[in-house]
Amino acid sequence: MAICIYGILALEHWLPRLFPQGLLGLAFAHGVELQHQALHHTGFRSRRANHYAGFLLGLPMLVSYSAYRDSHLFHHQALGRPDDEEFFKHDKTSGSPLRHKVKHIFMLPHFYCQLLKFTDACKGRAFPLKIAAGDAAMIRKEYLLMGGVFFTAALGSLAAGSDIFIQCWLVPLFFVAAPVHSLIEFPEHYGCDRFGARVFDNTRTIHTHPIISWFTNGNNYHVEHHALPSLPMEQLAWVHHQMKGEMRYYCHSYAAFYRQVISQAWTRRRHAKTNSHQEK
Questions:
Q1: Where exactly are the structural domains of the chain?
Q2: Is the pLDDT of residue 96 over 70?
């Protein structure tokens, strides 16, 4: 990350600057995938080490470790039930307008929500939790710290008459990290049997290239992860072939998944236009 920041600052023209900004954004997104492992306490042996590392990994994308952990562990318990809810509320409805989907791809609802939570933390409001009721005070501290770092960096850059905050944080965050993270998270349960009781019915696994699997920190093996949440992410590939035969939703690559989604959306749109013309 330091090399990327140096490259952004050293390059004067915006075009070559896009390369280190892109790499920095990818690092932000990869950090949240690593944070996901820390939530399950499988990144380090120490609970405290998982907490500290998880907080730092989520900071660039403004993701509170304790809030994410509470929501995500509840998601594991509630998967297949009507009250299931994920921390990152990506738009997964097939009939929503394009502008609504774009808003969620760039995670605008998430960032707006983080701003509201920072405001709540400043006002001392309580944070409703789903599992770890004792973590409310820690969540408030994390939002105060994240907000403090974010706004201090923004105001410091503004006071210095520099655009370093925009170039080294906002551009990589909004234009690279957010959409990349959305594209990683979106397939996990999209189009699956939402109320299916078995993880093989309500979750999707994508068997992808080892480099992509490393970048997602094994998140592509999502059926395996929900079946064995205490197993370190780097070991999910080992159990993949044992579970593959039972999976109802399986895809050979992220590209194949998104081709299928786009094809289905195009077909629905074409049918809707046909029906509209017939009614007229």
A1: 1-185, 191-280
A2: no
